[in-house]
Amino acid sequence: MTEQATGAHHPQPRPRSSGQHSAPEQVTGAQSLIRSLEEVGADTVFGIPGGAILPAYDPLMDSTRVRHVLVRHEQGAGHAAEGYALATGKVGVCMATSGPGATNLVTPIANAHMDSVPLVAITGQVASASIGTDAFQEADIVGITMPITKHNFLVTKAEDIPRVIAEAFHIASTGRPGPVLVDIAKDALQARTTFSWPPTMDLPGYRPVTKPHAKQIREAAKLITSARRPVLYVGGGVLKAGATAELKVLAELTGAPVTTTLMALGAFPDSHPLHVGMPGMHGSVTAVTALQKADLIVALGARFDDRVTGKLDSFAPYAKIVHADIDPAEIGKNRAADVPIVGDAREVIADLIQAVQKEHSEGHRGDYTAWWNDLNRWRDTYPLGYDQPADGSLSPQQVIERIGRLAPEGTVFAAGVGQHQMWAAHFIQYDRPATWLNSGGAGTMGYAVPAAMGAKAGAPDRTVWAIDGDGCFQMTNQELTTCALNNIPIKVAVINNGALGMVRQWQTLFYNQRYSNTVLHSGPEADGRSPSAGTRVPDFVKLSEAMGCYAIRCEDPADLDKVIEEANAVNDRPVVVDFIVHEDAMVWPMVAAGTSNDEIMAARDVRPDFGDNEDD
After folding, report:
1. Selected catalytic residue, list 137, 190, 388, 429
2. Which residues of 323-344 are buried (b: 16+ CB within 10 A; e: fewer)?
3. Of the residues 74, 82, 479, 583, which is catalytic?
4. Residues whose CB falls within 8 Å of the CB of residue 150, separated by 6 or more in sequence, listed in order
5. Is the pLDDT of residue 615 over 90?
6. What is the pTM for the complete model shown?
7. DSSP H or E run through 451
8. Residue whose C-alpha is closest to residue 88's, from 239, 243, 262
């Protein structure tokens, strides 16, 4: 299968035309906007009309090249655009009106900014003469989103629309991808203008560096071949760059262990013998410890996030750092780099391969035998696992593991945020890129259902499962109506433990089991027990059926595989499975917030013992 077919490489979109300049024609600004979206290659827009954006919705009705998906909440539009972008490698597009329509996009825009997702958000604005007067449904969305966009535009002249749209898509998809907001005044949409394509882009100073410096590459290769305990620390930038094939070559060439962050799952096959797991607060013992004991960390498209490093001043105390990132602002931000490399991950890794091959040809080859003896011992001693509930109820980890095992090849998994997100990261095997969607940096509850919707809209031939918690599900489940009415048959697993599970886990561990406002299935008098038939408010099966879905409930482990196979067999509408799981299950391993990664707990009251001889 080609890289393109496996999703290993997504070409960066560029403003394009049919090969010829279009003859100038008289149109409205709104028509110019839709024509610009067509020419730039947008084929799907998620949105909701309203007064200020309404002029754009009239020509949108006539477009044969742009499909509009009418969502039920603007947050759903934004997350759907993110899911679409991650599943297809193209720029996701969402649209909303002024004021509350625009402010409802703030969360997905922030999410896309944290996770480097190429997104263009188009918002209507009140007429330019009314800007600043507190007019009806006016909000300064450019000012509001300035800290959470890669760039944003306020358009008050119709003639600027094609250029701004071309620039927005270029900025969103090149360099470090990210969200761009285009706010268009209503009178600019209504005015007459001349449309021609392609426009001339004017972006002085925007020149992302993609080609790494040859001297830095040589220095990195020397460190790799002289190290005794190296680790390849792989972040989401490798996926964004379409560098997964190159990463596999580099890993196998060096023989160094690979750890993939939450944002990088699928960048390197989980099943590969060089893969030691996910690092971080809930990472595998082997991955966390490998970084702590390493003498060299090669960070590729990763940003030394606090969830990976734990207490920063105790992170990887013996390691030299090679840090490669397309965003120079990330290098040295949290951890000083011994060898900083600014460049696109694909080009960096390709050049590193050549430089390491040259080192090998000169007789310089790393000997990692002792290192792998340690790593394999940790892997064998502290594997990922879970206990079955003693009362015979469903284990949430088992539910997620079986969904992964029974899913068709190439299935895309989207997760909400919390315990179910970590279990989905651990117990589903990701061997291909573009098969894992989650909210990493922002940790946005409610992400899964709309993101899955966007992924399915962009990749209709692939199965898409949303792994959601009962807390997350109640934030954005209205988009199931959108899915049902638009032939977007996603599958949703609600991991229903009757609580805000991750918060409850912290209350169990750090707040003396005082479960303040984390029980979801009953009122303030709730006693903390699992939801019974009488206290299921809402009843997710009835709710999902009311929104046009096929809905099933599963409570018995004996029914688990049968129910999952039943869900997989339904492909003409969305499917929701309400899995009633044990509420006391916890996510392990765990590094408590603010503590050193050296204090990782493999399970409750189980601290790994590595001995002293490995601290040399």
Report:
1. 137
2. bbbbbeebbeeebebebbbbbb
3. 74
4. 113, 171, 172, 176, 177, 178, 179, 180
5. no
6. 0.94
7. helix 448-458
8. 239
Q: Which of 4, 25, 136, 252 is catalytic?
A: 136
Contact by Cβ (8 Å): 414, 447: yes
β 192-195/25-28 pair status = antiparallel
Q: Regarding beta strands 258-260 and 230-234, do their DSSP bridges make them parallel or antiparallel, or are they unpaired?
A: parallel
Q: Is 157 known to be catalytic?
A: no
- Residue range 187-202, pLDDT digits in tens: 999 999 999 999 999 9
pLDDT in tens, 446-486: 999 999 999 999 999 999 999 999 999 999 999 999 999 99
Question: Which position has the token pair 């050049």?
Answer: 351
Q: What is the dihedral of CA 390, 395, 397, 401, to 10 degrees?
A: 120
Q: Facing residues of 124 across strands?
A: 184
pLDDT one-digit tens code per residue, 103-157: 999 999 999 999 999 999 999 999 999 999 999 999 999 999 999 999 999 999 9
pLDDT value of position 20: 59
For residue 61 the two structure tokens come to 């009705």
Among 90, 186, 293, 491, the one annotated catalytic: 186
- The two tokens of residue 113 are 């900014």
Q: For residue range 303-344, what is the model confidence (pLDDT) as tens digits? A: 999 999 999 999 999 999 999 999 999 999 999 999 999 999
Phi-psi region of 75 (alpha: psi -120 to 50; beta: other; left: phi over 0): alpha
Catalytic residue list contains 547: no
Residue 153 designated active-site = no
Strand partners, 464: 412
How many residues does this entry show for the chain? 616
Known catalytic residue at 473? no
pLDDT at 535: 63
List 114, 502, 547, 590, catalytic entry: 502
Min mean pLDDT across 11-20, 295-304, 424-433 is at: 11-20
Residue 358 is a catalytic residue: no
